[in-house]
Amino acid sequence: MKTRVGLWIDHRKAIVVAVTDKGEQLGLVISKAEKQLRRGGDSPLKGRFEALQVPQDDRRQRSSTGHLGLYYDAVIACIGNAESILIFGPGEAKGEFKKYLKKKMPGARIAVVETVDKMTNGQIAAKVRQHFADNAQA
Question: How far apart are CA 68 and CA 92, in angstroms?
Fold first, then answer.
């Protein structure tokens, strides 16, 4: 049974559409990674502001990278052993995921990586169906 997967992804969530001979299945993976890293500690306007009160940038970055790694692993688990993968989304996450996928699954067949705006679940499913229908005829 052929499984082709379309994946709309950003840093907050991934919508996975698996198209098989039996039909299609929609999945959702939610990220726990922060969208933008925030500084903690006191503000200069409220009182003392010392370097020791603010977490180091590299520690915060490692934490964010760890969360993204767990998120990308969950997305890879949803993809399984797909014959062809269409990756699309609005930001940088699609490129990051492509690199991560190539590192974790060197044999993964990535068909296309596209930049698209935010879409509804129905629009995502329709785009995936259309892409694989067009490529099946070619």
Answer: 12
pLDDT at 1: 64
Spell out the domain ranges in the chain.
4-37+50-137
pLDDT band at 137 (very low <50, low <70, confident <90, very high): low
Residues 17, 2: contact at Cβ < 8 Å? Answer: no
Residue 98: closest CA among 107, 110, 116: 110
In angstroms, the CA 104 to CA 60 distance is 24
For domain 4-37+50-137, the question of CATH label 3.30.420.60 is answered with yes
Residue 45 CB neighbours (<10 A): 6
Residue pair 75/14 in contact (Cβ under 8 Å)? The answer is yes
Token reading at 103: 């590192």
